[in-house]
Design a protein that fits this description.
By secondary structure, the chain is of the alpha+beta class. It has 2 domains: 3-176, Trna Endonuclease, Chain: A, domain 1 (3-Layer(aba) Sandwich), CATH 3.40.1350; 180-267, no CATH class. The protein has 9 helices and 13 strands. The chain has helices spanning 86-97, 141-144, 147-161, 172-175, 180-189, 193-196, 199-208, 216-219, 225-237; strands at residues 3-5, 38-41, 44-47, 68-73, 79-83, 102-105, 109-114, 117-121, 125-129, 132-139, 166-171, 214-215, 254-255. Strands 2-3-7-8 form a 4-stranded antiparallel beta sheet, covered by helices on one side. It has a 4-stranded mixed beta sheet with strand order 6-9-10-11. Strand 4 (68-73) and strand 5 form a beta hairpin.
Length: 276
């Protein structure tokens, strides 16, 4: 086989599920109008795909010599993100766990002028939150330090700015820093608990409105002890509660509702540095 389902013991891979796209949305379009095919400016153009999966190229093939990754994602109608490298697969797990983020892997072909030539580039992800849109390229640590990748990133970032997009090189070391990735796995594992028990929101709303941060043990005291940790993971996944995800989630974590103004970027931006 040329690919594998990206799973761990705590991040099950839905082997019996097939990715689907609702018929009323025949083509997946993230960060752009569905009918848009090309966006261009001086020295650069973005060529969008027209496909149910939203990818500009296919990375999973039965004859592929290299290992590929199919990552189950639980937001946005449930789908599988296809990735070429473990760094991409890890990044997708983090992005899927982060409330307030939309993303698309293999999102477009970018053509840009550099050193007197027109070059093609396929970024790994397009990440969108509100009006903020960034193309991300995941690289191994030593690749991020490579002069070619850094100069290309600087060139593409400068040109993309005129089209309203940012560009970011993401080093593998940032994907695994602190407790973010382990927390993301646990949050994804219990993502659907909140949908199974919608009455939790009623209790949480009554307890948390206008209150200062308190421990999850106290905030979820209306639940049986054995359900509280799973409920906490589900509430964090769905953006109902917020906590410091740089340390391991526990019932001693201090939690609070997200700001009503929506201030700040979603937590996944805490991981990365800009390529510039």
């Amino acid at each position: 086989m040329g690919f594998s389902l990206y799973t761990t013991a705590l991040d099950p891979g839905l082997f019996d599920r097939q990715p689907s796209t609702p018929s009323e949305f025949p083509n997946r379009a993230v960060g752009r109008p569905a009918a848009e095919r090309v966006r261009e400016a001086d020295g650069i153009s973005i060529h969008w795909p027209s496909a149910p999966h939203g990818r500009a190229r296919l990375v999973l093939t039965r004859s592929g010599a290299r290992r590929r990754y199919s990552v189950p994602c639980f937001r946005d109608q449930e789908r599988f993100a296809h990735c070429e490298a473990p760094e991409e697969a890890t990044g997708v797990v983090l992005l899927d766990a982060c409330a307030g983020v939309e993303f698309q892997e293999q999102p477009a072909k970018i053509q840009y002028e550099w050193l007197g030539e027109i070059r093609d580039h396929y970024p790994d992800c397009l990440v969108v939150t509100g009006a903020h849109k960034e193309f991300w390229e995941f690289k191994k640590d030593h690749e991020v330090e490579d002069v070619f990748f850094r100069r290309r990133a600087e060139r593409v970032a400068k040109l993309l700015a005129s089209l309203g997009f940012a560009y970011r090189l993401v080093s593998a070391r940032y994907l695994m820093q602190a407790a973010y990735y382990r927390n993301a796995i646990e949050m994804r594992r219990h993502a659907k608990q909140l949908a199974k028990y919608p009455n939790w929101l009623v209790h949480l709303s009554a307890r948390m409105t206008g209150k200062a941060p308190e421990t999850a043990q106290v905030a979820l005291a209306f639940l049986p002890q054995e359900q509280r940790l799973a409920a906490l993971h589900s509430c964090l996944y769905n953006g109902i509660l917020v906590t410091d995800l740089s340390v391991a989630i526990s019932l001693e974590s201090y939690v609070h509702p997200p700001p009503r103004t929506g201030g700040g970027m979603p937590w996944v931006w805490e991981l990365f540095e800009k390529s510039s």
